Amino acid sequence: MKEEIIIAGFGGQGVLSMGKILAYSGIMQNQEVTWMPSYGPEMRGGTANVTVILSDKKISSPILSNFDTAIILNQQSLDKFESQVKSGGLLIYDPNGITRHPVRKDITVCTIDAVDISANLGNSKAYNMVVLGAFLKKKPIVTLENVIKGLKKSIPERHHSLIPMNEKAISIGMEKVNDINKI
Amino acid sequence: MAEHILMKGNEAIAISAIRNGCDGYFGYPITPQSEVMETLMEEKPWETTGMVVLQAESETSSINMLYGGASCGKKVMTSSSSPGLSLMCEGLSYLAGAELPCVVVNVVRGGPGLGTIQPGQGDYFQACKGGGHGDYKMVVLAPSSAQEMYDFVDLGFDLAFKYLNPVLILADGVVGQMMEKVELKPMKPRWSDEFIKSTFKWATTGKTPDRKQNVITSLALDAAVHERLNHKLQLKYKQMQQEDVRFETFMCDDAEHVIVAYGCMARICENTVELARAEGIKLGLLRPITLFPFPTEEINRLVPQLKTMMSVELSAGQMVEDVRLAVNGRVPVNFFGRLGGIVPSPEEVFEAFKKEIK
Question: In chain B, what residues touch A20 (CB-CB under 8 Å)?
């Protein structure tokens, strides 16, 4: 198993922390992981992205130009990364604020209305966990049990009371993911 | 089972310092290595191991604080990024001249000048060929993973005290910012004052009636004395070349072409080797782990089986000079580099490689 993922959106959407939770879940499942963020000016309001790789074997390059999965949370990132999904790969995006939708037919395209869902949950901070749930439904590369373990490792202990809410957000994300283009 | 933690390379440096008995860290923040001091401040090691963590007023101060701490036989370190290292070069020359051990980390960004905060490898010359003035060398370790960031702090102190010389960990923005699984090795306690006094007879630990005072200096106005000091230093550098060359090879056994790359570029080029092998091209990778001492002998050993070598760097071509010196004209040595903080993908390196061997 080797899964190469790009997660991209605005700074503040929880892109980097979603990647971190996914990476920690991989460690809980005895996988090798790398988490390589874009860092610098883009962290302060612009676009943020992180490359996460989970693999059964040692990982060589943390920097990639093609991905198995792209998780896209804004228009700029969709414009930039749609072409970088490997043929047969997966693109998940939140349609909120998207005017130019994906056009590729050789990849699986899914949507997740994570803005609406997290608003209904009454916690907009659960946004990234809804998206993570959608991804895990399509590619169950780590078990939910290990994701919860990963959450515990990446969230400071004083916030552990929030874990059930995060777990709920992940489950709803799993339920509500829509297939737009299936291959 | 050993404990595995997900951490950034920069965080691994900090945690390793605490766990490997470092006595003092003196630094000044700069991207992309600020997490080193941030992590140390969060961990508050002064409450546990007694390690001192101090934000100095500048890089010039921090390197001279290392001079003071090292003079007392303490395990001291600092970290910075490229422009900060430039400020430290005077101090590094003095530390080498005075034969003082310390560990310095440079998480390299793009230069020259303030440059960019994105990754670079343009400080190879500064690290390996001087930076400061005079005939001095440092052991230069080039980590390519978060685990090596962790391991090389301990190794760095071992080598620094073996040679009584500064050791430089030459990382880059990718290795500093990337998170990976890191195995925490067993803790090493800080050295006691008694141990330091009895082991490091040169250290300024307080004069006792039974010996003359220890003087730590790089100054020797008598030409003959100063030449002797320089010869002694050169002997150490020769010993480093004999005993402490470190490197790693990947698919070199049957290789007809070899890429030489270090740090983050070695990781990327490992993928390039896989791409080439998938097309039936016999490409291998040599990753120098010590940039000084450089794996000249290994290159020598490989050259007879090779058609070309290629140095791949985030610079305009620095390490390639050492590769060419080792190859000495026997096979063509090509070069590929990106500048300005741009990190090429494995595919981009492969295209550049194919263009060169056509």
Answer: 6, 179
Taking contacts as CB-CB distances below 8 angstroms, the residues of chain A near B179 are: 20, 23, 33-36
A28-42, A168-182, B117-131: segment of lowest average pLDDT: A28-42
What's residue B130's pLDDT? 83
The C-alpha angle with vertex B272 and arms to B353 and B275, in degrees rounded to 5, equals: 100
Is B249 an 8 Å CB contact of chain A? no
Please report residues of A whose CB lies closer than 8 A to that of B283. Answer: none
User: What is d(CA A151, CA A24) in angstroms, rounded to the nearest whole number?
Assistant: 8
Domains and CATH numbers, chain B: 4-193 (3.40.50.970), 249-357 (3.40.50.920)
Nearest by Cα to A166 from A22, A38, A3, A33 = A22
Residue B118 pLDDT exceeds 60: yes
Tell me if ipTM is over 0.90.
Answer: yes
The reply to whether B334 touches chain A by the CB within 8 Å rule is no
Tokens encoding A119: 């608003």
For residue A42, the distance in angstroms to the closest alpha carbon of chain B comes to 12
Checking if the pLDDT of B32 tops 80, the result is yes
Mutation site for B-interface testing, chosen from A31, A63, A153 by largest number of B Cβ within 10 Å = A63
What are the structure tokens assigned to B218, written together? 């790089």
Between β-strands A108-111 and A85-93, what pairing exists: parallel, antiparallel or unpaired? parallel
Residue B3, pLDDT score: 80
> Are B272 and B281 spatial neighbours (Cβ–Cβ below 8 Å)?
no
Enumerate domains of chain A plus CATH numbers: 2-181 (3.40.920.10)
φ, ψ dihedrals at B329, nearest 5°: 80, 0
Pairing verdict, β A85-93 and A67-72: parallel
Does the CB of B346 have a partner CB in chain A at under 8 Å? yes
Residue B225: CB partners within 8 Å, gap ≥ 6? Answer: none
Mean pLDDT of A158-170: 93
Interface of B with A in 270-299 (CB under 8 A): 270-271, 274
Q: What is the pLDDT of residue A44?
A: 59
Examine the pLDDT at A40 and tell me if it is beyond 80. Answer: no
Check residue A183 and give its pLDDT: 85
